[in-house]
Amino acid sequence: MHVAEMRMFRWMSGLTKKDKIKNEYIRGSLGVAPIDAKMREHRLRPFGHVQRRDANHPIRRIAEVQIPGRSRRGRPKKTWGETIRWDMLVKGINIDMTQDRIVWRNAIREGSRPRIGIRQRG
Known about the structure:
Layout: H1 2-13, H2 23-30, H3 35-52, H4 58-63, H5 80-91, H6 101-108
């Protein structure tokens, strides 16, 4: 995923691998956040909405459901909840932050800086 992303950034910048310019410099000059950080932000955003719902709301109940019975052989597939818990651990945020929309938005945001040297339309 990162390789394809950097290939596109190099193409947009008119650079090649032969130019030997570091990925961090290219990303900084374009002013974009890493794709995995943006994906994490997009996974965490709806989680905040679900957690602010009433505990009896159908969406909240579905998000917290435990399916009874035996599971299949082998390693279980990663669930949405496990992914969210991992994303929150990586970001260093806790579930109590979901109750305040502004705090939650600022905690999960992975901003892209404005581009340098690009004219604005107007």
